[in-house]
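User: Just a sanity check before I run the rest of the batch. Below are the structure tokens for the first item. I only need the designed sequence back.
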């Protein structure tokens, strides 16, 4: 096949959710056809755990085929009789393994969890099923979703379809890889320091970190105010559609809030908006090609009628890393230590490093002190965004990561050595300021053949404005297309 050439199967597999729904309603295409096209691509291109894309922990094709046939019949009935159409009826959704499905494994890549079975559906899974979505596969993540690459002893290495030597990012790396490869229409993700936006940036997809509590979580760690579950898609509209299904108050999560079924994509141009631009968020050593791609987005927004305002923030990568690890040291780190007790010798190196770094930061900073560190960053962001409608910045400072990289000794950039791999990503400040809605949308390509992304940051709870600007960016940046898979 020549570069860029597509087949009918490829075209069906890569339909956006909105395109697929239109075809389903008109009976021009069937949910069965789309599912089978994606299964064909999975079987042809997902490969093995060592050299392939390896996006999934398991597939659920038999159940999915049954549900697709039921959805196809329902569209025929609806065309005849009319009536309301469930929001995701017939659409495939690949769910992150941590979003438990009752009766199926819930291992999070950990040897300590091997054989663990979910007792109940995660609230996100419950809502996908109620909306008619078809869960046909479960996506990979690093152990306990604690790294920015996606590999583990249990599940092997997940690779970026754009460049198999590169990582799709993490921790929702399987979700990003599956989307861009045409293995699924939609995907679920989670984000406690960038785990939705980092893979979106590296795969040329769209990832949304909603305000804290907007999408319900599960179990005790749902109370961690840095965290959030979220949607990923190939377009801003698809991501908004999935967000509308996932969002809203749920009895299982007392921190959840707001209405369900509200689509945050309200439309509107950027003409007259004031959009802040920060290329470095203080002192992040942003790669030249990422700077240029971000500047190109800013110039396009200006041409569309927005006023772009340079923004300075008094942040350093070291300070941000200390802030987030002080937080992790009092919540996530101790939880991981408890969950992995007795299996320390079987942990991935990055997991052991995360637990150790979190514990060390907690010894340096009390919980009360970490709250003060959070508040300082939040206040500085609020001051920088005063008088603006949204903020634009890169998603990651580096152009790519090696698929199997641990980065235990940090990362070298053209400007300086970063002592910790988290300093390569510009996402975690907005988990500290976790009431802000943030999307990562594509901004172009790097010399490594890996996409680059920009983040659109809204004021606290201002979801519609964040989606408005993100949709404008998407319309102004040339489409990346899809990677050609061998």
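Assistant: Here's the designed sequence for the first item:
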């Amino acid at each position: 096949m020549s570069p860029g050439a597509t087949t009918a199967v490829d075209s069906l597999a890569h339909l956006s959710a909105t395109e697929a729904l239109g075809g389903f309603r008109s009976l021009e295409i069937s949910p069965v056809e789309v599912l089978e096209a994606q299964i064909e691509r999975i079987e042809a291109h997902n490969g093995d755990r060592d050299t392939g894309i390896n996006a999934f922990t398991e597939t659920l094709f038999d159940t999915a085929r049954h549900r697709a046939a039921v959805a196809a019949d329902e569209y025929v009935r609806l065309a005849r009789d009319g009536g309301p159409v469930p929001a995701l009826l017939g659409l495939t959704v690949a769910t992150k393994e941590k979003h438990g499905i009752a009766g199926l494994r819930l291992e999070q890549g950990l040897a300590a969890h091997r054989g663990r079975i979910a007792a109940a559906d995660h609230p996100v899974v419950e809502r996908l099923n109620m909306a008619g979505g078809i869960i046909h596969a479960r996506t990979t993540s690093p152990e306990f979703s604690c790294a920015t690459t996606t590999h583990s002893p249990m599940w092997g290495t997940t690779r970026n379809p754009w460049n198999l030597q590169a990582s799709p990012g993490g921790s929702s790396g399987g979700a990003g890889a599956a989307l861009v490869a045409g293995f699924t229409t939609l995907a679920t993700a989670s984000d406690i320091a960038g785990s939705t936006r980092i893979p979106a940036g590296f795969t040329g997809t769209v990832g949304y970190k909603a305000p804290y509590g907007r999408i319900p979580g599960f179990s005790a760690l749902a109370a961690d105010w840095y965290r959030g579950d979220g949607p990923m898609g190939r377009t801003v509209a698809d991501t908004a559609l999935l967000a509308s299904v996932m969002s809203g108050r749920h009895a299982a999560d007392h921190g959840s809030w707001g209405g369900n079924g509200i689509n945050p994509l309200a439309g509107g141009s950027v003409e007259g908006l004031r959009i802040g631009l920060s290329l470095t968020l203080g002192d992040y050593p942003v790669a030249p090609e990422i700077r240029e791609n971000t500047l190109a987005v800013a110039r396009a927004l200006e041409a569309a009628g927005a006023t772009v305002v340079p923004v300075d923030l008094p942040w350093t990568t070291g300070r941000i890393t200390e802030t987030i690890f002080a937080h992790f040291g009092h919540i996530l780190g101790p939880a991981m230590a408890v969950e992995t007790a007795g299996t320390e010798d079987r942990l991935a190196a990055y997991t052991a490093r995360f637990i150790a770094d979190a514990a060390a930061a907690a010894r340096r900073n009390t919980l009360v002190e970490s709250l003060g560190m959070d508040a300082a960053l939040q206040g500085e962001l609020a001051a920088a965004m005063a008088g603006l409608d949204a903020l634009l910045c890169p998603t990651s400072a580096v152009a790519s990561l090696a698929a199997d990289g641990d980065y235990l000794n940090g990362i070298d950039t053209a400007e300086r050595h970063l002592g910790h791999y988290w300093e390569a990503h510009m996402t975690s400040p907005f988990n500290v300021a976790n009431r802000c809605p943030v999307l990562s949308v594509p901004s172009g390509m790097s010399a490594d053949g890996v996409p680059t992304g920009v983040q659109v940051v809204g004021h606290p709870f201002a979801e519609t404005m964040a989606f408005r600007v993100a949709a404008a960016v998407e319309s102004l940046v040339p489409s990346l297309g899809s990677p050609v898979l061998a």
